[in-house]
Amino acid sequence: MRDGFLMVISGPSGVGKGTVCEALRAKRDDIKYSISATTRKKRPGEVDGENYYFLSLEEFKEKVKRDEFIEHAKVHNNFYGTPKDYVEENIGKGNIVILEIDVQGALQVKKNFPGAVYIFLLPPNLEELRSRIVKRATEDEETINLRMHNAEKELSFIDKYDYAVVNDEVDDTVYKIECIIEAEKLKATYLGGNK
Fold it and tell me: Domain for residue 127, yes or no?
């Protein structure tokens, strides 16, 4: 049996990943949120080591060279990465580290970090997903259409994940993910003999 592990949660924009992850953290002391490193400038109110690890471009590139990230990518002209040390340290303490990332990042993690658990959050249907994105009122019609197009592409990667959970009702989704956590902790393959 095992105690701690990395849990990767992906899903299309608007599916409620952030809401579900926050609800999980509020319920369980053993859930830790992976803190990313970034080269983007710190925004007012953000705290280094709490919101992000803020690095210069040179520092970030040096960490890439030293293979210190589980995954990294360039997004909107800034670099983001998941530090190995933080994840490994928390797993060693028996915690479940949540990494909320897109499909491309999840596939990178799969190559670089064996033993992680992959959960794909699904909307009840695509109409509901569109409705959720529209209700946020943060994007114009063109951006909404792009997000829906990307969602359909992301859904084609669902077979790369260990679990698929429909996020219809947050409490129900959190319960299902807690069941996954308990099942993963009880896997016999982590007793040492069966791998």
Answer: yes
